[in-house]
Amino acid sequence: MKVPIRMLGIATVIFWVFLAAFIGLAAYSIKDLGLDVGETQVSTTPKGELLFSLPISIDNKGYSSLNDLKITTVFFDESGAEISTASTSVPTISRGETAMITHNATLNMNALLHKGEEYLLEDQNLAASVTTGLTLAELLPVQISANFTYPWGAPFYNFRLSQPSVGSFNVTHYSVGVPVSFENHAAFDLTGNIRIQLFSNDDKLLSETQTSFNAPRQSSYADEVEFQIGANSESLLNQNGHFNIYFSTALFEYGPLVIPYG
Amino acid sequence: MVEQNKKLQNKVKDISSRVAIAAVRAILMYVLFMLTTMLIAPLLEYMPGIIETIETFVIVFTVFMILGDLTRGTIFCHFLNVARSLFVIAYLVLSIGDGMVGTSYESYTITLDLTIFYAFAAALSLLGFARSILQTIGYVNERTEAVYALQAKTK
Predict the structure, then answer these.
(1) Hey, is the C-beta of A27 within 8 angstroms of any chain B C-beta?
(2) Between A157 and which of A181, A183, A191, B51 could a Cys-Cys bridge form, CB atoms 3.0 to 4.6 Å apart?
């Protein structure tokens, strides 16, 4: 009985040593992993979505290959509700290989504005969760997750329509000027149309106009839109009323945004 | 008188050899612990508290090992070996739990799925436990055989 017990002891010790060496090498593989995350690039897709591209370079200097690499980004709004999810997968990064990955996450502006018009008019903080999962040394699944805050710049920050002022007139119509201004705080250039309806106090449509605009990122926009209203409606203009504003850009359609005047 | 002196000498020799073996094994264990700590030093800053856990394990394991060496040749040695094996299993179960080990560093959370390692380690611990039980059975068997042989001799 002594010999089998001794053999059992020797076998157990050998297996323990193998296990410890395996864990040690796997741990050292993590240490020797070179990770370089570039700057996020923002662009638009043909589908009219915002595209966030994150270049990532992974240099596998470890002792074993990396498998099933999956990067997942989830955007959340301020209430914690999920807005968008995106994943990038790489099946294998061999030992000594450097993998260049571009992780793309899209954000549908229409879906975002559906959550609330504050994303159009006010700067917000979007929470983003980035999770990276991979299998080390063929056997050990590892998951690294991080939470970030993405500062969302409103495309129509501080959007203002000033009090209508009567300009020139003829026998049948008055020309009414309304100054429009906003700041494009978004990470993208903004080009499109703004359609504005002018309503009187009793919800009577007095006039409608539209203007096209081009506001590069991080710039201010100021213009004046002109309404033609009938001569008999001029008195209604002096009372209270409201504007209904419809935004139309390549990325999104939104409206009506109601702004009172008077 | 000469025989008594010889017996005493043998006993002293036996005890001193046990103490020496226990001391050498304890020193080896300490050296192994120090080497392991040095090797995993770069990872320790990401896993606060792990070194204390390993220290506790090494201390308890070494105490069982020293006591086992000092009581070598008695039934207590085997009891201590069984207790040591059970301690290793209990330590694994309590420290690794469901096999998921996680730590946080700045805004990052790292989760390691050690289920496969856990399964291997648990299997090896059970093998160690089985070996200790077999050693105990072997020891009791030998003692019983010796007693029967002595009884047969005296008859």
Answers:
(1) yes
(2) A183
